[in-house]
Amino acid sequence: MLRTSNLATSLLLVLFAAAPVRADEPKDLYFGEALYYAHQGQYFEALERLDTEVWQHDQIDEPELDSLYVHIDDAEFSLGDFELRYRMHHRAGRAIKAVLEGAVDEVIRNDAAYRLARIHFQKQQMEDALLALDRIDGEVPHGIRDDIEFLRANVYLAEGKQLESVEVLKRLQGSDEYGGFAAYNLGIAYLQNGQKTAAMQQLDRAGQIKTDDPGELAIRDKSNLVLGTILLEDGEFERSLPPLDRVRLDGPFSNQALLSAGWASMAAEDFERAVVPWSILADREVTDSATQEALLALPYAYGKLNIHGRAAIHYGRALDSFGAEINKLDTSIDSIREGNFLEALIREEIRQNKDWVIRLRNLPEAPETYYLMELLASHDFQTGLQNYLDLADLRRKLLTWNGGFDAFDEMVEIREGHYAPLLPDIDEKFRKLDSRMRLRAEQHKMLVKRRDDLLTTPRPEFLATPEEQAVLARIEVLEEQIATSGTTSSEPAQQRLQRLKGILAYTLYTEYHARLTEFDKNVRSLDQAMAMVQDEYDEYVRNRQAVTHSFVGYDKPMRRLRAEVLKSVEKIDQLMARQGHLLEALAIDELVARRDHLENYGDKARFALADSYDRATQAQARLGESP
Amino acid sequence: MMGAAQDLSGDNIRSLDGQVQEIKSDVLSIASELNTLEERLLYPSHTQVALFVSIAPHDEFRLDAVQLEINGELATHHIYSFKELDALQNGGVQKIYTGNLITGDHQLQVTMIGKLKSGKDFNESGSFVFTKGIEPKALGITLAGPGFGSDGIKIGDW
């Protein structure tokens, strides 16, 4: 009756769907890409991208230059969030703790503390959940204020701290999001605290709230059902009827309410009134346990009204119905044992539909899932089922990757086959070109140096043309010859040589600036040519490296990854077998229990049928004897 | 019977849950490494060009499809599902194209097709030039509905 923790867990799961990053915030492209996947519910892809992005950000020397820098807190927070949604609670807990311990904004820290508390709550670690909640201090994100308080109240309830829970729940009574749920939980908290009168008053209030929200309508029905059941168990039959009557006839708790209303009337010995809810219920979905009980209870009421003939007919109908259901259950159990249940669960077209559990029954050979609804909704089964489905997804991914390795290998092989024979010749040519280029580069460097020297220390003779240099050299030779001959007759020749030198010097000095300008122009043009050559050289080196990288260095990592993929598939197969076996065992246990229950009902129906026939026959005989 | 089932679910499923979390972690590492390797193999850094699409904040037009042409050749064409559009409107960024281009200037033609809030169809194109250097190029395309004039389609480096 008091399934507060399951209820709270399911509520929390719905309420945590808020996106951590708003659309109007600027962001890192790759972080944005992770969000693109996360918003589509593809958390594996989102995690894979964001994990890589955060890791790369952590590796760079100057992280402040990275576009993720301003969003790193958000990114780490989202990492934890995605892990949580991908049901990786261990890693999510670590990631969120890291945010909590980092130097982050108060609002983010409080949000993280709340998420951590939620993880602990889901893992039923209530003390840790409370510790995390106690870390919340200061400004709290507006959107999760009530979430925090509702979680706190549920943790207190689970911890047996009803008084504390009552105080928190009282404050939540006006909450837009939690009003109806808080009203019901407050009643439960009073009940657990032994304050039965307060509990019933509170459940009565919770059962009459005005709302049109489907969730709140359901919790209102539940409040009425719980209140009606408490009163029924206390022997307050008449008082139990108004709350039971308030339960909507088309709501999820209507079958149980109709059943209880019938029993309340029976207990009050108003048998005719009991027939009304049970007649409605007996015509409903026969797989529901309340309906099955009503199939037996209805003829029981007719019996009490001494309408034994109609009672016998209804007992007969119940027997037929139980027999058919037992057959259906046997078939379902066989179907599960043959593996059809797990096969049906992982069918993609089934999972695309939000009513997939109900649609399962439409599949040929799938077991009767209506009998499994309660089990399917339980937290443990859901955990196991989600894990099974996640494993099936991982397996599909791994097998796809494994199929790609051969293509990669072939690609690398083709590249190697194409490039490897060409490279020695290309490398040889490049080596020759490289040495020529180095030589030219040295010459270029020397010319640049000479130009720079001339700018600070003018040396006109350095800018003489080759002809001028030849003339100067000839003059020097002649001067030397005259000097070694030692004759005076050579004086005119000497003077002529001096004049010639003078003319040359005059030309060199007067044309020096023009020549230097020309020289500088030529060196600059050479700079450009050398830069172009250098660019081409660099591009060649990059392309040459790219060629090597296109086929070298893949062998080892590919081999390792291939082995890891196969190892993971093997591990997943084992886990899927164990997980699948557990799910099957749980489903079979549930179906066997329901079958045992129906067999028990069948036995009762058989005895009651015989008894009703006897009584009907006796009544008929009495009628015949009477004058 | 149900008690036994509960034990079965409680202990074993929790123990299995830990192992499932471990294998998820392992497969995530494999995926990350494989993606890096695949990127290196197919899109070497010096020729790599990646184009990303996002929607301008607060813009409520319905994006139906995007077509990208690079240097006059069709690079990619994408038709958006409801989920994808919702993801974009909530701040997600779609990596729409990854390819290889030589260094230098390239022409990018972006065409978007969509519907306004009023239900009217619209079709808008933009032409841009971008330069591919020796580093990997990541180019973001931000789309906005009509009314933004020539700013309906913007591109920017990342």
Distance between the termini of chain A: 56 Å
Mean pLDDT of chain B: 87
Shape of chain B: flat
The major β-sheet of chain B equals:
4 strands, mixed
Number of strands of chain A: 0
CATH third-level topology of the largest domain in chain B? Immunoglobulin-like
Tell me, what's the shape of chain A? elongated
Helix content of chain A: over 70%
Write up what this structure looks like.
The complex is a heterodimer of chains A (627) and B (158). Chain A is mostly helical. Helices cover 78% and strands 0% of the residues of chain A. Chain A has helices spanning 4-15, 29-38, 43-59, 72-85, 89-101, 106-122, 126-134, 145-158, 162-171, 179-192, 196-206, 214-233, 237-246, 254-267, 271-282, 289-304, 308-337, 340-345, 348-351, 356-359, 373-377, 379-419, 423-456, 466-485, 491-510, 512-549, 555-625. The relative contact order of chain A is 0.06. Chain B is α+β, with helices and mostly antiparallel strands and 158 residues long. Chain B has 2 helices and 8 strands, in the order αβββαβββββ. In chain B, the strands form 2 sheets. Chain B has a 4-stranded mixed β-sheet, with no helix packed on it. In chain B, a hairpin with a 2-residue loop joins strand 2 and strand 3 (73-79). The N and C termini of chain B lie far apart (61 Å). Chains A and B meet through helix 2, helix 3, helix 5, helix 22 and helix 26 of A and helix 1 and helix 2 of B.
